[in-house]
Queue: 2 jobs
Job 1
Amino acid sequence: AAGAYAPAGTAAPAEAADTARGPLGKNGKPLSLRFVLPSGPGSAGLRSVGEKIAAMLDTIGIRTEITKVSDDSYFRDHVASGDYDMALYSWPATAYPATDDRPIYAKPLPASDGSLLVEQNYTRVGTDHIDQLFDQAASELDEKAARDLMRKADARIWAAAGSIPLFQRPQLVATGKQLVNVGAFGLGVPHYQDIGYKAPQAAGAPADRKK
């Protein structure tokens, strides 16, 4: 519905015209993106996400051609080699983005043999400015200043739009009832000295009451 995502207090956008919207294109040629997805039984979740993305793009006139390939060749022969228009993959998050995320967004450079050195930037989209912000943040000793530099790098990465984060996977940790101070730490640093088992309750001691 029009205005479904408008911030509170803002006017809703006008309804779209009733005329049917055709596919987006240029010079009479419709836009169609080759969407490569793995075909194995262990990749059903990834394919489900991909099919939902394709359906959403279709509503705004962007066509997709879903190509399913074997799990073994998906990353090696397609993602890493750049043989795709769209693909899905994930990276683990760390508490040190200035150093750990730089290879993912570094601008590809020509290698001595004429090939392109992409490190882990499989989108092959990058800028000198983004690289400079990462380098400055990695060498900055002031934590606040380093975070500010990473925010600037983040804004430039979003503007380049080579890689678009879709969602964050939850971290799920199961522990026994007697184990304390352990669980899903996220990007926090575990205090291993605080992890342990509850002391056994002394005989005759009153039981803990939940409030």
Job 2
Amino acid sequence: MFASNEGHLEVVKYLISIGVNIDEKDNTGETSLIYAIESGHLDIVKLLVQNGADKEVKITISSGGLTKSVLISEMTPLCIASKNGNLEIVKYLISIEANEEAKDKYGCTPLIWASKNGHLEVVKYLISNGAVKDERDKNGKSPLICASENGNIDVVQYLISCGADMEERDDEGRTSLFIATIRDQREVVKHLTSIGANKETKDNSGKTADDYKKNSWWTETMFL
């Protein structure tokens, strides 16, 4: 696993040749394939997969584990590569038919992760290969809502150009504009407003985004 993480291709080849279990997990729940993906070592990713590594393995790392790029439960290799914005690894995993719609514990697909983290080229590639642009996580948030929430304007613009519905709501009844407003994502707010997003929508509590913004305590503490 250390060799995969550090990019030591010849060492990985040797370990495979002597029969090391490729899919063995360490005490944080990660396999050699996961380490190689997290570190961006495409050559090792390919080698491991070609020698039988499970491309759909789901890892489970507790929040008290190692402080790494993955502190989320049940993410597949494609989810991790998409979350980290590693386009070449995303392309490779899709080329070997990794499941584009596999969800983690929280219902996030690779496209949701790429949208949330602002990885436009990964978003484009996933959609061009058939990823569902309106899939939702367990809170009812779509890729567009996640991109809006995090201020990823280029992803927001692209998803809308692909037909994503800017009036869709999450499980709390909040639209992309609503969430962008309360998160103070001004560039996203400006864009959504300019193309006609409804500024007066109310959530399931009957409140508008401006109602929340007027509450200074709520504004300061909601997203800590």
